[in-house]
Amino acid sequence: MTTDTILSTASEADSKARRGFVLALFAYLLWGLLPFYIKAVGHLPIVEVVAHRIIWSVPIAAGVLIFLGRTADFKRAIRSRKMIGMAALTAAIISINWSVYLWAIIVGRTVEGALGYYINPLVNVVVGALLLGEKLDRWQMAAVALAAVAVSVLTYEVGVLPWISLALAFSFAAYGYFRKTLPIGPSQGFLLEVLILSVPALGYVLWLAATGQGHFATGNLEDTLLLVGCGPITAVPLLLFAFGARLLRFSTIGIMQYIAPTMVFLIAVFVFHEPFGTVQAIAFGLIWAALLIYTWSMFAASRRAVP
Questions:
Q1: Partner of 188 at 20 to 30 A CA spacing, among 70, 84, 220, 254?
Q2: Which has the closest alpha carbon to 32: 101, 96, 97, 94?
Q3: Is the pLDDT reported for residue 173 higher than 60?
Q4: What confidence category does residue 7 fall into, taking pLDDT thresholds of 50, 70 and 90?
Q5: Rounded-to-integer distance, Cα 124 and Cα 170, Å
Q6: What is the pLDDT of residue 96?
Q7: 8 A C-beta contact, residue 121 and residue 76
Q8: What angle do CA 301, 302, 303 make, to 5 degrees?
Q9: Alpha helix locations (H) across the chain?
């Protein structure tokens, strides 16, 4: 291989990495700003908002798939009962995650939502160990132990488990685990999921309209636009992340995944002025320490893997 060829290959790899970084960064920034949009739709019923997130995501996901010319895998998937069953499971899990997150922000528990997505990477480590037989090194075990202590501290203070944080962390971990069983690309998988969910979602919206309980196209233009906007704010960051992640190293994604919960945490405390006392500060300190240890161990493993 000539020097020019090597330089060309390296330059192409750098270009892809930069493109992937920009795509993933925009995805995380949009996720980080999502609480503002959720607050804007907070006066609407949560189930109706989730239904419109699903319905208006369908044309966006389908349009992207058609534009990229990646419909062949999708056509094969919708002819497979097994594939549809698997997609129905992942779709149900992610809809639960969406609903809990929406509710948490609307009722003023955004800090707990941020904590859930901080905990999620550590839950993924535990899921990998328990269900995939992946071995934890001593640093990963220490990180998980610190996270468990943080949850215990919050439980002791409040008197109950921080169920919002745990529900978000475990539902997203479950989604990631079962999503791996779908042998199709992320954009095809997302379209399949929202198509499956659109059946009950559309039925529910039509029922709301028939009974006069809906808020879509009822004369209030602001509510109608907000509900339609639920599609783009759901589909766009997911698709940006899906395409960006394919161009980045796992370790890079591992660091970037903290952007969104950090933004959400700062918005919750300094914009929404949610309570954040000493006990919460201790718990978050433990979580951040756990994430530093986990991230360091991830980079160490990545360096050892390089020949």
A1: 254
A2: 101
A3: yes
A4: very low
A5: 8
A6: 94
A7: no
A8: 90
A9: 3-40, 46-68, 72-78, 81-106, 110-131, 138-158, 163-179, 186-210, 221-245, 250-256, 259-270, 278-305
- The C-alpha atoms of residue 178 and residue 171 are separated, in whole angstroms, by 11
* Residue type for position 135: K
Tell me the per-residue pLDDT of 113-161, one tens digit each, with 9 for 90 and over. 999 999 988 888 888 788 877 777 888 888 888 888 988 988 877 677 8
Question: CA-to-CA distance for 229 and 34, rounded, in angstroms?
Answer: 12
pLDDT for res 6: 47
Comparing 85 with 179, the larger pLDDT belongs to: 85
Residue 301 clears pLDDT 70, i.e. is over it: no
Range of weakest confidence among 29-43, 145-159, 164-178: 145-159
**306 Rama sector, left if φ>0, alpha if ψ -120 to 50, beta otherwise:** beta
Express as a percent the part of the chain with pLDDT over 90: 49
User: Token pair 């639960």 is at which residue?
Assistant: 96
User: Tokens 């949560």 sit at which residue?
Assistant: 46
Structure tokens at 152: 């215990």
Residues in the chain, total: 307
Structure tokens that stand for 4 in this block: 């020019």
For 23, the token pair is 């795509």
- Please state, in angstroms and rounded to a whole number, the distance separating the CA atoms of residues 30 and 45: 23
CA distance 205 to 302: 48
Q: What is the DSSP letter of 109?
A: -
What sign for the dihedral angle of Cα 39, 41, 43, 47?
negative
Measured CA distances, 83 to 116, 122, 153, 192, 196 (Å): 29, 28, 42, 9, 11
Q: What is the dihedral of CA 162, 165, 166, 172, to 10 degrees?
A: 170
- Cα four-point dihedral sign 142, 143, 145, 149: positive
Amino acid in position 53: R
